[in-house]
Design a protein that fits this description.
Blueprint (H helix, E strand, L loop, with lengths): L5 H28 L4 H9 L17 H15 L1 H21 L2 H12 L5 E4 L15 E5 L2 E12 L6 E7 L9 E7 L5 E6 L10 E12 L3 E2 L5 H37 L1 E2 L2 E2 L4 H29 L5 H26 L9 H10 L8 H15 L2
Helix pairs in contact: 1-3, 3-4, 3-6, 3-7, 4-5, 4-6, 6-7, 6-8, 6-9, 7-8, 8-9, 8-10
This protein binds flavin-adenine dinucleotide.
């Protein structure tokens, strides 16, 4: 593990203790029942974890994106679904308010999001607008006293658990991405309803649902940012989300590697532990190298974010590299475990399934490459 400043070392120890003592024992039940209990989020909040990245002036711990990555890395090692549920709130749910909110909105919502009283989620994707969110059709029109939102968002992580939805809608159909505006929609607002829940390959405890907006009216005070600024807010939030997702990948990779090292030292074939067969040792070396690179990218990019220097390209690179490196690490982990890597009896099988979606959500690998290439072609190296 790389050296962290003292306050982040303390945070890591706190998050690690929480992950091992509270989350890890629950993980089998979460996988079996396909449900992260809301009480677990309350416990995370009580431990101070939901406050980590919220600035101190809004009731948070002010430990920035670096702090959030530290927590994500630790939680994911114990249970990917729990970490994703945490991230839907503490990363993209809360960060959209931090990135786009007015001083009044931040003052109102962020302390409640930091202490876990209000859980957030982020609703951008639609059935026909995933990689290309500017093609969204959910619309918001001005009405007396506010805005009426109509449309359907899909694949919304924790959409059924959230108290506050950050939703993006078209307010000017002729303006493309510049015609999108962001809104905050509190749970219980008439016209907001939760639809189908997805049955997924992995991360089964994390809920993924459809959110429908039907004649859903919110006051103008719940508009997030200026009219037409929604796409910018969506992308700036994703810069943070992709980075935190890199930390998820890092945590999952470490867990897979730890299990693989233990297995390789104890499983015997041809009269000696398989770790002593060079082809197995080479796999462990390649995964260790991938993990080192992931860690370097996550924490370097997090420090850029916290230093307020542009980091969109680096965030896309981190997400791309970490999700693809994780796939390599879990694939090797299955191979090292042989038949037992394919058995549901062992955690490796679940890690393999949990990992796969990281190359898809918060922008696919192909979209990250487009983002990176566009920036390289514009700005050079
Ligand atoms: C478990 C899960 C949780 C999610 N949580 C959220 C959430 O909380 N909030 C939210 O808003 N969304 C969420 N999403 C949605 C996610 O961000 C989208 O699934 C993702 O952006 C891809 O969109 P799509 O599924 O429509 O794929 P499509 O856009 O249909 O893409 C299909 C394929 O075409 C490729 N492709 C598309 N365009 C191009 C191009 N120009 N060049 C090359 N290849 C291209 C893609 O890379 C992909 O391989 C979640 C998704 C999943 C699976």
């Amino acid at each position: 593990m790389h050296a962290l400043p003292e306050e982040l070392t303390l945070l890591r120890d706190l998050a690690r203790g929480f992950a091992n003592d509270v989350v890890r024992p629950l993980a089998p039940q979460i996988e079996r029942e396909h449900r992260v209990p809301r009480e677990l989020l309350a416990q995370m909040a009580e431990a101070g974890l939901t406050a980590v990245a919220v600035p101190t002036e809004y009731g948070g711990a002010g430990l920035g994106e670096t702090g959030l990555c530290v927590v994500m890395e630790e939680l994911t090692q114990a249970c990917f679904a729990s970490a994703v549920t945490f991230g839907a709130h503490a990363s993209i749910g809360t960060m959209s308010v931090l990135v786009g909110g007015s001083p009044e909105q931040k003052q109102h919502w962020l302390p409640k999001m930091a202490n876990g009283e209000v859980l957030g989620c982020y609703a951008l994707s639609e059935a026909n607008a995933g990689s290309d969110p500017a093609a969204m059709t959910t619309k918001a029109v001005r009405v007396d006293g506010g805005w009426r939102i109509d449309g359907e968002k899909v694949w919304i992580t924790s959409g059924d658990m959230a108290d506050l939805v950050t939703v993006f809608a078209v307010t000017d159909p002729s303006a493309g991405a510049r015609g999108v505006t962001a809104f905050l929609v509190p749970k219980g607002t008439p016209g907001l309803s939760v639809g189908k829940r997805e049955e997924k390959m992995g991360q089964r405890g994390s809920s993924t649902v459809v959110l429908a907006f039907d004649n859903c009216v919110v006051p103008d005070a719940l508009r997030l940012g200026a009219v037409g600024e929604g796409f910018k807010i969506a992308m700036a939030t994703l810069d943070r989300g992709r980075l935190a997702l890199g930390a998820n990948c890092l945590g999952c990779a470490k867990e897979a590697q730890r299990l693989s090292v233990d297995w390789a030292k104890t499983r015997v074939a041809f009269g000696k532990p398989i770790a002593e067969h060079q082809m197995i040792a080479a796999m462990l070396a390649d995964s260790a190298t991938d993990i080192y690179a992931m860690e370097a990218m996550v924490y370097r990019t997090a420090s850029m974010c916290d230093a307020h220097v542009p980091y969109s390209r680096e965030s896309a690179m981190t997400k791309l590299f970490c999700s693809e490196a994780l796939d390599r690490v879990v694939d090797r982990a299955v191979q090292i475990h042989g038949g037992m890597g394919y058995s549901a009896e062992y955690k490796i099988e679940q890690l393999y399934r949990d990992a796969r979606v990281t190359r898809i959500y918060e922008g696919t690998s192909e979209i990250q490459r487009l983002v990176i290439a566009r920036d390289v072609l514009k700005k050079g190296l």
